[in-house]
Amino acid sequence: MTEKAPYIQVIDLDFEYPDGTQALKEINLEIVKGEFIALIGQNGSGKTTLSKCLNGLYKPTAGDIIVDGLNTKKSSIVQMVKRVGYVFQNPDHQLFNSNCWDEIAYGPRNIQLSDEEVKERVEEAIQVVGLPKIYHSEHPFFLSKGLRQRVAIASILALRPHVIIVDEPTTGQDMKQSLEIMDFLQDLNDKHGHTIIIITHDMPIVGIYARRVIAMAQARIMADGPTGEVFTQTEVLEKTFLAPPQITQLAQADPDLGFNPGTLTVEDMVGQFLEMMGRRE
Ligand SMILES: Nc1ncnc2c1ncn2[C@@H]1O[C@H](COP(=O)(O)OP(=O)(O)OP(=O)(O)O)[C@@H](O)[C@H]1O
Ligand SMILES: [Mg+2]
What is the CATH topology of the domain spanning 6-248? Predict the structure, then answer.
């Protein structure tokens, strides 16, 4: 369920790196609790930079970001990590402890929780991501990429942030592994009530899982809305150099066929087809 009051408000945000690169320009958006958002856009469009602004790691050059009533400019890292968690594009850039348990405990220890609380948080996170016990004392680098990603997500979950941003969750994984990790993120959204933002280039995954799409190009937001609606804005999408999933393109190919141009999944298309057939009988 989504609530009306925004959990995150981004107001006229600009962000410039010290070398003068203008990575974000005039960004305005609101995110309410319970959303499942895909942030899409070509390489270098500003997706990672925006995420790092949302979790307070980067402070706006101009404009403001309000998270749960706190302005990121005036908030501490500790206040922010408890609200917005960011899982790195490459989990290996995030994992640096010598065993999985310590890796997941790192954040809670860092915010000075008691040993008891740390243990409770780690065990809870391990249970949510389903990391088998044999791996708890293993070095993260001996795990498969899928499991390393789970450890990376668990290390963020242990801080109990409401929003979880996962940068490129399916890169380098086959379809089965991708669906597994995405189903897991969907559970965090459905069953545990987390707001999820994924950053991805994988359009079929966007079609299946995301309810809202924010499309970026050249430091700006070009489109923002329900997934099916954004995927029908073909001219806008062209500016982002992105194409909707093939199934959506197929549904849009010949309007006379009568498919919904915002069709997102094969199941959805089959359903529409069966309905058309039923009507014809
Ligand atoms: N540390 C940095 N210093 C200077 N410029 C940077 C830095 N990090 C990123 N940039 C630049 O900022 C812009 C936005 O980069 P960003 O990493 O946010 O894009 P992205 O959409 O996440 O791309 P990708 O899909 O490749 O991950 C790009 O022009 C990039 O070169
Ligand atoms: Mg990036």
Answer: Rossmann fold (3.40.50)
